[in-house]
Amino acid sequence: MAAKSRNGAGTFDAQAFLDSAGVARQVAAYRRSEVIFSQGDAGDSVFYIQAGGVKLAAVSTAGWEAVVAMLGPGDFFGEGSLAGQSVRKTTATALTPTTTLVIGKAEMIRVLRAEPELSDGFIAYMLSRNIRIEEDLLDQLFDSTEKGLARALLLRARYGTKDKPDRVLPTLSTAALAAMVGTTPERISEVLQKFTRLGFVEDGPAGLAISTSLLSVVLHD
Predict the structure, then answer these.
(1) What pLDDT is attached to residue 41?
(2) At a CB cut-off of 8 Å and minimum separation 6, what does 177 contact?
(3) Does one domain contain both 134 and 69?
(4) How many CA atoms lie within 13 Å of 21's alpha carbon, on the beta-carbon side?
(5) Which of 141, 162, 186 is where one domain is finished?
(6) Percent of the chain with pLDDT over 90
(7) What does the pLDDT look like over 121-167, one tens digit per residue?
(8) pLDDT higher at 11 or 56
(9) Is 11 in a helix, a strand, or coil?
(10) Can you point out the beta strands (E) in 13-52?
């Protein structure tokens, strides 16, 4: 298994894994825009893309759709079933005519337990793929103003210096923060509200508490 994966996730060759481990699977073909599985369906199998592309998306209770990932040949999806997800958290839709291998949950678990070396490669591959998806989501989630404000707050909190970071900053006006970032006070207020909802900052009696998780906003330029 020396071939490098399509997305750069190490040296794990997924097709070789499936072939050498003797994994029982079925071939399934889908038309463009055909739904492979829907959010809420039973999570009873794992899919491997041989050709084509797949979009994973989730719909909120308010009806908003969020695209979670765009996948292509060499990618697995539906693996949440292996970690105890009894129902699908996303809807998988074919972006183009797509061919997949479908592996039953019980079969995949059996092989991973029986083949430790192959299991290690598969786990490393999935972790790398999920990191890539997380980076893509963060890039979509935060715009330049949000990243600029995150940098300004982290600099004032002295993250990245040898000094012990200040966890709480004195209260700063939105006008002062706007001048640092190059935007309007109204926009700063909106971003601070978003950061508060996400748990990155908390406005308390002593000032603005900065969470180390705010670093995630600026690490994915």
Answers:
(1) 95
(2) 149, 152, 185, 188, 192
(3) yes
(4) 26
(5) 141
(6) 24
(7) 888 888 888 887 777 766 655 667 888 888 888 887 765 554 555 57
(8) 56
(9) coil
(10) 26-30, 35-37, 45-51
Sign of CA dihedral 181, 183, 186, 190: negative
Q: Report the alpha-carbon distance of residue 206 to residue 111 in Å, rounded.
A: 55
pTM, full prediction: 0.58
Cα distance between the two ends of the chain: 32
Q: What integer best gives the mean pLDDT of the chain?
A: 81
Same domain (yes/no): 124, 160: no
Q: Which domain holds residue 195?
A: 144-218
> Is residue 24 domain-shared with residue 94, that is, in the same domain?
yes
Residue 185 φ/ψ, nearest 5 degrees: -60, -35
What pLDDT was estimated at residue 44?
Answer: 92
CA distance 48 to 16: 12
